[in-house]
Amino acid sequence: MIMLQRIWAVMQKEFIHTLRDRRTLLIMLGLPLLQLVIFGYAINVTVDHIPTVVADQSLDSASRAYVDAMVASGFFDVVAYAPSQAAVVRAIDQGQATVGIVIPPGFAASVQRGDAQALILIDGADLFASQSAYGAATTIAQAHATGVMVKEASRMGRIADPSSLLPLDARIRILFNPNLKSIWFIIPGMLAMLMQTQSISVSAAAVVRERELGTIEQLLVTPIRPIELLLGKIAPNVVLTIINMLTIVAVGVFWFGVPFRGSFGLFLWLSFMYVFCGLGLGLLISTVSRSQTQAQQWVGLSMLLGTILGGFIFPRSAMPLIPRLIGNLFPLTYFISICRGIILKGVGLNVIWQDTLALFVYMVVIIISASRAFRQTLE
Fold it and tell me: Within this chain, do residues 365 and 224 fall inside the same structural domain, yes or no?
């Protein structure tokens, strides 16, 4: 009972301090929402309507059909025509286009003989655009070639059923995101990243600020324990971070149209655990830092590593062992998997129990570590 009274006293102090600073409070509540809206519209790993320059040196029905097939896919927009391959390369160098299509003379005759070739030039300086262009161009070229072959065989009467020419009919079905909307992939990861950013940054200055203001000495003469002080300082930030979480989920579902298929109660419970992990990491940084500048530098480094190595954009399965192990040091790694599992897949605790267990262990270890580091600092 006495312990709860001491924690409540610190909580009151922190709530009063937070509510008095209206500008900081407004930034803490509004900045994550603003970041979500900006990133939600700006980040798009599926690039379409790629500006394309065409050098059609054949100018026959076959070459026009090929270009039309590329444009009809929605991935390529013809912005200009060029007389030669050199002109296409020059247009890409000047930034007028990302893709160039060069069709040699006599394309229709080559199609009739079955040895037609077309050159597709892609600007590799733009990673996502070049990957989308390469994949789309390869798929469209194969589909177009198959269609031409089937049509030619049918016209010459070689086979009654043209579809029997195809040795394999692959039926592909995309689970959980059938239209491959990148925003459905981005929002759950963005939610986890913004919650980590806020939880770490707002708590990283908690203890070091007391030291810089000279109020740490006042805490030394009180009977409060380190763990009680840390829990009291965490409380206001937990409330603010959960409010931001609810706002971000609402915007993602009702504004961006991301489906929420799982249990919201389970998600809320795990979000509390995740927030405590982030706040504990921020308090550990605050405890071992000697100034707010040093604390912010550690925060920046932790957020950078967590974002890159946690699987927010880049899949962790493609990373070498050492980066994966470093990524395990951040709660973002586990919560991204939880977010995508609950929000997009609608899975339960029986599926994500490993990430949940890792998050729980992380929370206990980080709070105890911050408490011990704070005790050593006081001594």
Answer: yes
pTM over 0.85: no
Q: Kindly provide the b/e burial profile for residues 89-103, where b requires at least 16 CB atoms within 10 angstroms of the residue's own CB.
A: bebbeeeebbbbbbb
Let me know whether 8 and 98 are in one domain: no
CA-CA-CA-CA torsion sign (300, 302, 305, 308): negative
Phi, psi angle pair for 264, to nearest 5°: -70, -35
Tell me whether strands 50-56 and 119-122 are parallel, antiparallel or unpaired: unpaired
For the stretch 25-36, pLDDT in tens is 677 777 777 777
For residue 104, what is the domain's CATH number? 3.40.1710.10
Show which of 102, 137, 165 is a domain's final residue: 165
Among residues 133, 165, 197, the one where a domain terminates is 165
In angstroms, rounded to a whole number, what is the distance separating the alpha carbons of residues 150 and 154? Answer: 6
Do 226 and 87 fall into the same domain? no
pLDDT digits (tens, 9 = 90+) for 138-163: 888 777 777 777 676 666 655 555 55
Residue 315 burial (10 A CB sphere; 0-12, 13-18, 19+): exposed
Q: What domain count does the chain have? A: 2
Range of the domain at 102: 50-165
Handedness of CA 296, 301, 302, 303 (dihedral sign): positive
State how far the Cα of 118 lies from the Cα of 102, in Å rounded to an integer. Answer: 6
pLDDT tens figures, 41-96: 766 666 788 899 999 998 888 889 889 988 988 889 999 999 999 999 999 888 88
